Amino acid sequence: MVTIKVDNLVNFVSEVFSHAESSTEEARRIATYLTTANLTGHDSHGVIRVPVYIRWKKTGSVVPNQTPEIVVDTPSLAVVDGKFGYGQTVTPVAVRLGIEKCRKAGLAAIALRNAGHIGRVGDWAEMAAAEGLVSVHFVNAAGSLLVAPYGGVEKRLSTAPYCVGIPREGQDPIVLDFATSTVAEGKCLVASRGGKKLPTGALVDADGTLSEDPHVLYGSYTPDGPRDHTKGTGAIRAFGDHKGSGLAFICELLGGALTGTGATAPDRRFANGMLAFYIDPKVVDPANFFDGEIARYTDFIRATKPIAGVDSVLIPGDPERKTRADRTKNGIPLPDDTWAAIVNTAREVGVSEVSIQRATA
Q: Which of 103, 111, 214, 310 could form a disulfide linkage to 259, CB 3.0–4.6 angstroms apart?
């Protein structure tokens, strides 16, 4: 395991993307969002994605320095085409538009289509919550077949994230952010690179055998080589049996089909689609009952007597807050295989050995 200081990691990853044709601003933006995912403990959406992003850029799946296009624009609704730009560039444009419309109308809906990987969806819920807005996000990944629907063994769904953000006065927002699969694909990536092991039975092989071996998803691979989920014989399982599978199906239809990105299919170009709703609590609740009731109910949940082996009952966002505080102070831990893959990618795009050494100083 190697531990990298937060600023060092942001600077290093910025340099990687600057060497891969992104503007200085875009490179810094990508690096900041990826590092923030690591800070919150979402390593699956953090800097482990650097080799994947650069591979997508080389194959043309993602395009640097894109300006998204607003193709439908009404007072309370818009459709934004990301034109396959990096998600960290095009998604903030769509979210800001949703915030602006919600401020004026009290309610807004934004359909984002054809975005590069948008990263940790919680970032966008936090962005809205910082402006005092509730947000709900349905996301899919066209071209990313990873998950078997309940009762099946073949890949038919993306990991189809779902996210809700709720602002709180004077406190961090409540953010529920999860893949509708048992684990995000990034967690399989982390496990395959020497990180945290997968939960028992997170994967299912073609013969119906449950497994937690990343080779089921990726096939054979070298420690620091690429991972290709089309090479494996199995799939990730949907969480919660038919309930998680059903929610994933809805994310595909709303985040994918309705936005124009398309529900996932084997012949589609990779892209994220996101349908997001924004609600202004001040319009819905002029008496300001909402915030006090959030506080009361949060305390009520946390006061639950825990079962054996559990220290305390948490609410969404509690583990992320704890991890963020720890890693901001002590640095971001990365498995050796993960760091080696990032360094190899840095060398491929022309980052100097001096910069590589500086990152771990």
A: 111
**What is the pTM for the complete model shown?**
0.94
Q: How many CB atoms lie within 10 A of CB 207?
A: 8
Helix (H) or strand (E) holding 203: strand 203-204
Q: Is the backbone of residue 9 left (phi > 0), alpha (psi -120 to 50) or beta?
A: alpha
Q: Are residues 11 and 120 in the same domain?
A: no
> Helix (H, G, I), strand (E, B), or coil: what is residue 174?
strand
Query: Residue 11's domain is classified under what CATH number?
Result: 1.10.1530.10
Task: Give the CATH number, domain containing residue 255.
Answer: 3.30.1370.60
Residue 333 CA to residue 5 CA, distance in Å, equals 9
Distance from CA of residue 177 to its chain's centroid?
8
**Is 324 contained in some domain?**
no
Q: Of 263, 284, 305, at which residue does a domain stop? A: 284
Residues 6+ apart with CB under 8 A from 284: 106, 290
The number of domains in the chain is: 2
Is residue 180 in a domain?
A: yes
Residue with tokens 């970032």: 123
Provide the terminal-to-terminal Cα distance of the chain, rounded to the nearest Å.
Answer: 15
Alpha helices in the chain (DSSP H): 6-18, 24-39, 50-59, 87-105, 122-129, 185-192, 215-218, 242-251, 281-284, 289-302, 318-330, 336-349, 353-359
| CB proximity list for 356: less than 8 A, separation 6 or greater | 12, 343, 346, 347
Residue 345 sits in which domain range?
2-60+331-359
Under DSSP, the state recorded for 238 is: B
For 154-164, what is each residue's pLDDT tens digit?
999 999 999 99
Two tokens at 82? 């990301």
Residue 125 lies in a domain: yes
- Between CA 218 and CA 233 the distance in angstroms is 8
Over residues 171-230, the pLDDT tens digits come to 999 999 999 999 988 899 889 988 889 999 999 999 999 999 999 999 999 987 889 999
| Type of residue at 207 | D
Angstrom distance (rounded) from CA 142 to CA 117: 10
Which one, of 156, 147, 210, 215, lies nearest residue 180 by Cα? 147
